[in-house]
């Protein structure tokens, strides 16, 4: 198995750790359905050092998770005994704490019961994405707002810290989300990919073009100095997010470059081969003139 290969572990787990520990506190996320394998993974990672805990992915709604029977496809009641065994195995494998990321179940009572089971099994931090798993074949699984009321109910029922995930698109959403859910913190994914300055203190007024160009230039400078171990495609994917890519096929659009033909812009990014070339693409895309 690839997981047994030391070079694979080095690439996937250890190669991006900051040598001076400036990326800590750091949790390593695992997914799977074998308690012994996950316990072994935790022990190997803990022995290497450079991390502060582990997270079990119980929220992934993609087809790969359905095919592999992990992520959100372990939320169904028939799998709860297995999930409990997974969390218990991870939490007893080392002295490091274990967190879990989940989605909502169709019935709120079932979500609360599932959350309490995770806590009993040893989960010490729970992140809740406020949407259902949905059908992995459906492209618009995330359509519609997250149910912050359900996250608030989980927070009220739990005795461990709870993170709220969903409904953050801009800075003003941060405090609004916390006020609604009473959560201990926020987990933000796509909004930070589109705007890495989301958590930064408010700055003097600047145009969107200047702001996006600024953080894109800073990111690309860092990517040139520290190339991602997963390859240049990772850098290209970030640029797609910076330009506000959404949809696919006939619905493909770039929110921050509405004047550009989206398929042409997509292909231009895909054909790039350097960070300098990508910065030029970003600058041209942000211009209002065609």
CATH architecture of the largest domain: Alpha-Beta Barrel
Characterize the largest beta sheet: strand count, sense, and whether it forms a barrel.
6 strands, parallel
Report low-confidence residues grouped into runs of 5 or more.
none
Q: Find the count of extended strands (DSSP E, 2+ residues).
A: 8
- CATH topology grouping of the largest domain: TIM Barrel
Gyration radius from CA atoms, angstroms: 20 Å
What can you tell me about this protein's structure?
- The protein is α/β, with parallel strands linked by helices and 290 residues long.
- The chain folds into two domains: 2-188, Aldolase class I (TIM Barrel, Alpha-Beta Barrel); 208-286.
- The protein contains twelve helices and eight strands.
- It has helices at 6-14, 35-48, 63-68, 80-93, 108-121, 148-157, 172-181, 190-194, 208-225, 232-242, 262-271, 275-286, and strands at 27-30, 53-58, 98-104, 123-132, 162-165, 185-187, 245-246, 253-254.
- The strands form two sheets. Strands 1-2-3-4-5-6 form a six-stranded parallel beta sheet. The protein has a two-stranded antiparallel ribbon with strand order 7-8.
- Strand 3, helix 5 (108-121) and strand 4 (123-132) form a beta-alpha-beta unit.
- Helix 2 packs parallel to helix 4, helix 5 packs across helix 6 (148-157) and helix 9 (208-225) runs antiparallel to helix 12.
- The termini are far apart.
């Amino acid at each position: 198995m690839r997981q047994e290969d030391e070079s694979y572990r080095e690439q996937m787990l250890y190669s991006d750790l900051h040598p001076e520990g400036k990326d800590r506190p750091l949790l390593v996320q695992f997914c799977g359905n074998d308690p012994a394998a996950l316990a072994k993974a935790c022990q190997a990672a803990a022995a290497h050092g450079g991390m502060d805990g582990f997270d079990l992915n119980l929220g992934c709604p993609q087809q790969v998770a359905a095919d592999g029977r992990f992520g959100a496809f372990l939320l169904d009641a028939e799998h709860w005994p297995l999930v409990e065994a997974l969390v218990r195995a991870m939490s007893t494998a080392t002295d490091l704490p274990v967190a879990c990321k989940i989605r909502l179940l169709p019935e709120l009572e079932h979500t609360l019961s599932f959350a309490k089971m995770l806590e009993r099994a040893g989960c010490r931090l729970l992140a809740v994405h406020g949407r259902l798993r949905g059908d992995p074949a459906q492209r618009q699984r995330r359509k519609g707002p997250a149910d912050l009321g359900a996250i608030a109910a989980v927070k009220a029922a739990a005795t461990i810290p709870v993170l709220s995930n969903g409904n953050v698109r801009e800075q003003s959403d941060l405090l609004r989300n916390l006020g609604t859910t009473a959560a201990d913190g926020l987990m933000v994914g796509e909004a930070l990919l589109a705007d890495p300055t989301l958590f930064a203190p408010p700055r003097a007024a600047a145009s969107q073009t200047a702001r996006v160009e600024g953080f894109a230039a800073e990111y690309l400078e860092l990517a040139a100095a520290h190339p991602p171990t997963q390859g240049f495609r990772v850098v290209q994917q970030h640029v797609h997010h910076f330009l506000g890519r959404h949809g696919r096929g006939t619905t493909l659009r770039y929110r921050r470059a509405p004047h550009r033909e989206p398929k042409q812009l997509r292909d231009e990014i895909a054909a790039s081969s350097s960070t300098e070339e990508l910065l030029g693409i970003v600058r041209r895309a942000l211009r209002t003139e065609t």
